[in-house]
């Protein structure tokens, strides 16, 4: 399943800078999206709505990719979901 986790990271990475540009703690925002047993689509849509107000042209193609990341996350086994959360937390610690 490491490939599935890497696929999520590869798919999300190009969009996270724009999506989380105004976040005080981007890693906390990412963890919020991936914290529960399912991808937090409501929170993801709220982040996307903020971006679409600031940059509507940039936001338009991001929505399908964001929802696809959610679908990929939801398809992961529980252990792989936990591993993804640990990777985000580790990246957060390294960037501080």
Question: How would you characterize the overall build of this protein?
Answer:
By secondary structure, the protein is an all-alpha fold. The protein has six helices and no strands. The longest helix has 18 residues.
Category by helix and strand content? mainly alpha
Main β sheet profile:
none
Give the helix level as a range of percent.
over 70%
Count of DSSP helices?
6
Shape: globular
Q: How is the quaternary structure best described?
A: single chain
- Report the end-to-end length measured between terminal Cα atoms: 28 Å
Query: pLDDT average, as an integer?
Result: 87
Fold blueprint:
Blueprint: H1 2-19, H2 26-34, H3 41-54, H4 56-59, H5 62-75, H6 78-95
Tags for this model:
96 residues; mainly alpha
Task: Compose a concise summary of this entry.
It is built from 6 helices and no strands. The chain is an all-alpha fold and 96 residues long.
């Amino acid at each position: 399943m490491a490939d599935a986790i890497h696929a999520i990271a590869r798919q999300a990475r190009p969009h996270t800078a724009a999506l989380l540009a105004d976040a005080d703690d981007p890693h906390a925002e990412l963890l919020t999206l991936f914290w529960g047993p399912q991808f937090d689509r409501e929170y993801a849509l709220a982040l996307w709505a903020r971006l679409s107000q600031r940059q509507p042209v940039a936001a338009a193609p991001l929505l399908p990719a964001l929802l696809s990341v959610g679908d990929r996350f939801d398809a992961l086994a529980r252990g792989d979901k936990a591993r993804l959360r640990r990777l985000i937390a580790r990246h957060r610690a390294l960037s501080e």
